[in-house]
Amino acid sequence: MERHYRVLDKVQRRILKMPNVVGVGVGYKQVGLTQTNKPAIIIFVEKKVPAANLQRSQKLPPKIDGLETDVIEIGRVRLLDRVMKMRPALPGSSVGHYKISAGTFGAVVRDKNTGEKLILSNNHILANGTNGSDGRASVGDAILQPGPYDGGKASDKIAELIRFIPLIRTAQPSECPVAVGVAGIGNRFIRLIRPAYEMRFYKYSRSTNIVDCAVARPIKTGLIGEELVELGAVTGVEEAREGMWVQKSGRTTGVTSGLVTAMGVTLKVSLSDDESGWFSDQVVADVMCQPGDSGSLIIGKENKAVGLLFAGSDTHCIFNRIQNVLNLLEIEF
C-alpha cells in the first residue's frame, strides 16, 4: 500500500477541505458491511449525502490518481469521556449511589420476573456498601450518572436502587441488647477518666461473600443504552476458565484486557480504610484496573459476560462469577 500512502500525503489537505469530510486514511474497501481485500483511500464523512443533492465540486471522486476510494459514514467524532453526563447512559460510564464517589455502570440486564431493563453494578457502587441494616442505603435511593465525584447532582438521577445482595464484613458493631447495655455502663465510667474514649462491642463473622452486586431501575425509558462503551453489545454468558482472555470497559482505565490467573479464589478484601470482608468463589485476572472501575462487566472474546469486577490491586483485578450474580439478583441478559 506504499503508493496509497504517497497519494494520500499529496491529496489529504485538499480532501479534508471538502464539505462533510472529517478524515482520510488508507484501508480496505467495504462493500455493504463486508470488508474486501481491495486497498483503497478511505474518506470519512460525518453523514453520507445522496449524489443528487451535491454540487459537482462537492462530490468525492471514485478514484484518486487511479486508486479507488471508499466513502465511510463515521458520524461525529468526539472524545470518549466516561465521566461526563451521557444520555443515553452507557455501560462503562460513571455512575453511583448519591452518597458515594463514583464507579462503573456495568451492564444492562433484565429482571427474570418482569422483563424490565435494569442497571447492574456493585453493591458498593449502587447501594453504598450496605449490609442491609446499617442505614447506608435503602430501596428507592437515587442513582446518579455521572457519579457524585464526577459532578453528578440530584438533577442527574437516572435510576433508583431496587435490589442488592448485602455485604458481610469481618467485624460489625454488635446489635445484641446485652452487649449494647454493657457498653453503655462501661462508657459512663470511662468518660470520668478518659472523656475522648469509648467502649464498643463488635461481632466477628465467619461468613463470606460470593458477590458484590446490586441493580437499579431507570426512572424513564430511553435513559440508558445497552452497548458497552468501545466494546459493543453483550452477546450472552459464559463461564470463566483458567487462562481465559478477558477484558472490561471501566470508568477510570477504559478498555483493558488480560488473562484469568486463578479461579475458586478466597481472599480478604478491604472495603474501606477500617473495614474488610472475606470473599469466596472469586476469579483473579491480570487485567489493569483502578478505583472507579468497580462495577465493570468482564467479557470474553465473543463479548459474552464472564464476571463483575469489584476489587483489584496494583497488578490484578478480582471479579464475581457472572452466574452467581445473575442467580442471586434474579436477572438475566
From TrEMBL:
<dbReference type="Pfam" id="PF25608">
    <property type="entry name" value="NAL1_N"/>
</dbReference>
<dbReference type="InterPro" id="IPR057905">
    <property type="entry name" value="Nal1_N"/>
</dbReference>
<protein>
    <recommendedName>
        <fullName>Nal1 N-terminal domain-containing protein</fullName>
    </recommendedName>
</protein>
<feature type="domain" description="Nal1 N-terminal">
    <location>
        <begin position="13"/>
        <end position="67"/>
    </location>
</feature>
<dbReference type="InterPro" id="IPR009003">
    <property type="entry name" value="Peptidase_S1_PA"/>
</dbReference>
<dbReference type="InterPro" id="IPR043504">
    <property type="entry name" value="Peptidase_S1_PA_chymotrypsin"/>
</dbReference>
